[in-house]
Amino acid sequence: MIQLNYKEARPLYEQIKESIRKMVISNAFLADEKLPSVREMASQLAVNPNAIERAYQELEREGYIYTMKGKGSFVSESSEAADSKREE
After folding, report:
1. What is the Cα–Cα distance from 49 to 32, expressed in whole angstroms?
2. Residue 19: how many CA atoms within 13 Å on its side-chain side?
3. Of 5, 10, 57, 87, which has the fewest beta carbons less than 10 angstroms from its beta carbon?
4. Contact 31, 77 (CB under 8 A)
5. Of 79, 73, 87, 86, whose CA–CA distance to 16 is shortest?
6. In angstroms, what CA-CA distances link 78 with 15, 18, 52, 83?
7. Cα-flanking dihedrals φ and ψ of residue 80, to 5°?
8. Distance (Å, rounded) from C-alpha 38 to C-alpha 26?
9. Do the beta carbons of residue 64 and residue 20 sit within 8 Å?
10. In this structure, how many other beta carbons lie within 10 angstroms of the beta carbon of residue 59?
11. Which residues pair with 73 in a beta bridge?
12. Cα–Cα distance, 36 to 49 (Å, whole number)
């Protein structure tokens, strides 16, 4: 799923964000599919939950995902950002 390179100069949250973005663009995550919770993903990747939270926040700001309080984070149905990236 998500591969992290701990020796890379880029912060972990950017690597996570980029991996999720690529998965959304390639339709590995379908529209309205629930993403793992921050704690679940942090546990799976063995990273600080703050890194996951920051990646999710930036993805939401870019329009790739949306968050529903108490329910979790989901892939945006029609992400304009994802559509433009697919065209490229």
Report:
1. 23
2. 17
3. 87
4. yes
5. 73
6. 23, 18, 23, 8
7. -60, -35
8. 22
9. yes
10. 25
11. 67
12. 12
Whether residue 54 contacts residue 16, with contact meaning beta carbons closer than 8 Å, is answered with: no
Question: pLDDT per residue over 48-82, tens digit each?
Answer: 999 999 999 999 999 999 999 999 999 998 655 55
pTM of the model: 0.85
The pLDDT value recorded for residue 70 is 93
Residues 73, 57: Cα–Cα separation, whole Å: 10
Tokens (6 digits) for 22? 């690529």
Token pair in block for residue 80 = 């304009």
Nearest CA among 67, 78, 80 for reference residue 34: 67
